Amino acid sequence: xxxxxxxxxxxxxxxxxxxxxxxxxxxxxxxxxxxxxxxxxxxxxxxxxxxxxxxxxxxxxxxxxxxxxxxxxxxxxxxxxx
Length: 82
Fold this sequence. Notes:
Blueprint: E1 2-11, H1 18-29, E2 41-49, H2 53-68, E3 74-81
């Protein structure tokens, strides 16, 4: 069975995000004063062949832990759909 998986990689709390800060300043300069915080991340879209949703999630988590995210400064979230 094929599963569509989104792996969202974000910086851990406390890690500086200069790109997010630059984007935040640019948004304020463009008049978006109601936006009070910005941060950056990455989204990986995977298609996984697996017997079960749990197995597909395990495969995605393994990929995220080994390649997609830097475990020292990043965390990841996995969302599975069919």
